[in-house]
Amino acid sequence: MKLKVLYLIALPFLSLTFISWGTIGHRCIGKIAQNHLSATAKIEVTKIFGAHLPLACTFADELRPYKQFNYTNKWHYINMPEGLNYKDFVAFLVTNKGPNVYNAVLNQIKILKNPNQTKQAKTFALKFLIHLVGDLHQPMHVSRAIDKGGNDIEVRFLNKKNNLHSVWDTGMVEYYGLSYTEMATDFDDASPEDIEKWQKDSIEKWIYESYKISEQLYAEVETNNNLDYDYFPSHAPIIKKRILQGGIRLAGLLNELYKK
Hints:
260 residues, mainly alpha
């Protein structure tokens, strides 16, 4: 409880941090993932989190105020050049060895697969993995360094001053007015065909999808940065799909990690 209180006090001062989907979005992704775990994965995940996988999905953001975890700050996003096709995007992605969401996800998977890692190290890696899969499905976490992922792009959202990153982190999700459990119930309607396809997609493709959406969002605000009452309904399908895909793909990843 003390950790969460400190996090909430410090949050207003973290203006340049990247907190994807906020509490509701991340926990919604966790709840959807929980709904789609295999029996084996559910047993293994329950050993660590009990029935509270969705609540653990915000752990990585709750560490933000603590200096000893500053090394994880760059794990939440990746900056990419503009205008890349898929082939060039993947080439840039796999050759970029610095700290970013892609490398962080791969590193957590590596830790979880390593039988020589301690239980403590694996628990920490799992808490980050379930968060970072959500992060990389948020379009503005795969965007441009020059404007800090949209943090420096001023917009008006629902007639209030804001920035593009914040609108997509929390503003759009909170607009629904739902709890994470209500949102998961409403969003979790993927067809068996979609589930199979999304879980077969590579992590590189997951990130490229966010990249293409962020390019669209940048282009839109260049012509109009007044995100009025039409903005949410016209973009709500993107929010739903990215959160749903994040949950379904997280489940697929955990099912693979914990298969017999």
